[in-house]
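INTERNAL TRANSFER SHEET
From: sequence group
To: structure group
Subject: Signal recognition particle receptor FtsY

Please process the attached sequence and return the structure record in the designated field. Keep the field labels unchanged so the import script can parse them.
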Amino acid sequence: MFDGLKKKLNSFREDVEETAEEKAEEAEEAERAKKADAVDAAETGEAVDETDSADTASDTDAVDADPVAEQEADSTAEPEPDTADVEDGVSAESDAAASTETLVDEERDVESAAEPAEAVASAQDTSPEELDDSEASEPSETSADADDEEENEIPEFARRHSSSDDGETDEKQSSTSRWQQMKSMATGRIIIEEEDLEGPLWTLEMALLESDVEMNVAERMLDTIRDSMIGESRKQVDTTAELVQEALYDALLDVISVGQFDFDERLRQADKPVVIIFTGVNGVGKTTSIAKMTEYLEKQGLSSVMANGDTYRAGANEQIRKHAENLDRKLIAHEQGGDPAAVIYDAVEYAEAHDIDVVLGDTAGRLHTSNDLMAQLEKINRVVEPDMTLFVDEAVAGQDAVQRAKKFDEAAEIDGAILTKADADSQGGAAISIAYVTGKPILFLGTGQGYDDMERFDPEELVSSLLADEE
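Return from structure group:
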C-alpha cells in the first residue's frame, strides 16, 4: 500500500544524505588543509627562532670581549721613553695602575653585577675630566645595546604572533559559513544549510505532486521539513538518514493527523442510538463500506441496523439486502423512489425500540455538482440530525477524491472519511491530503473485498510504514 510514495520519500532521504556526505567531506578536507598550514607555520617559526638564536650568540661573543685587556695591549705596544727619570715615574704609575686593575678584577670575580663595581673603581683612578667624558659616552652606548637586544629578542616573536592573529581574523570575517562548518566538524557536528536542501526539496515537491498530493499540502510539508532541518546542528552519530527521517515523519504526521479523534470512544460515550450517514459519489464503495462497518462494530460489542437511503438507484435494495443476509443484520428499506430521509428516520425509530446501538444509513451516490441530490442530503441532516456523516471515496482517485471531499464537506459538513481500495493505491496522495484540506480526519481504510478488510486509520502507523526501510 502506497509503495510508490514510499519509494519517493526514500529517494529524498538518499538525496539529502548524499548532499550531507559531500558537505562533510569538504569540511574534513578544509580541516586537514588548516592543520597542514598550521604545521608549516610552526616549522617556519622554528627556523626563524634558530636563526635569531645564532645571531644573538654572535652578538653576545662580541660584547663579552674584555675592553681592559685591549687597553693593556695598546699600552704595552707604546715605545719606551729614553730618560731614566721618566722611566721611574712611569714604573711607579704602572705599578699603581696594575694594583688598581688587580683590585677591580678581584671585585669582578666576587660580585655578579660587574658594571657597577667597575664604575666605582674607575671613579677612584680617573680624573674628573676623564670621568665627565666617560659618563657622557657610556650611558648612550649602554642604552643602544639594550635597544638592540630588545629589538632582537621580542619584536620578532610579537610580529609573528600578531601576523597569525590578523590572518585568522581575516579568514573568519571573509568566510563565516566555512568557519562554522569547520568548527562543527571539529566538534563532531554537521550544520544543514538551505542550499544543501534546495535540490532535494525541489525533487521531493515534484514527487509529491506526481503522487497526487494536493499542492497546498505539499508546500506545507516542504515548509515543515525546512523548519526541522535548516540551521540544525546534529551529532554525526545521529546519521543524516535519521535526521531526514525525523523531518519527514514530522511533516507527514502534521498533514495526515489533522482532526483525528478516537472513533470507538466517541461511539461509546454518545447517546444511543448513534446515527451515522454515508455519502459520496457513485460506485466508490459506500454500500460495501456499510457492510464492513457492521462487522467492525460487532467486534467492538456494538449492535447495528442498516438503512437503505439510496432510493434512486435500481438494484440498490437488492445489493444492501444481500450484505444484510450474509451478516445476519437487520435492514430497513422502502420502495424505489421513496424519500431517503423517511427511510433513515424509520431505522432510527427501530433502533430505539429494539435497543440497537448504531444506525448505518446509506445514501444515493451523487456528484458534488448535483444540486438536487445535495439538497436531499441537507434534508436528511435536518430530519435525522445524524451524529456523524462519513465521506466515502476511493484512495486511487487521488486529487479528485481530495476535491470531492472538500465539496461534500461544504454541503453536508462531514466528520471524517473512509478511503476504499487503499490496497490498490501506490501513490497515497488522497490519504495524505484529505485531512489537511477538509480539516476532517480519515477514519478507515478499505483494504480488500472481505467484510474484515477495513482497518482503523492510524496516522502514526502509516507514516512509520511509509518511512520504513525497503526490504
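Handover comment: The radius of gyration is 49 Å. The chain has 18 helices and ten strands.
Transfer complete.
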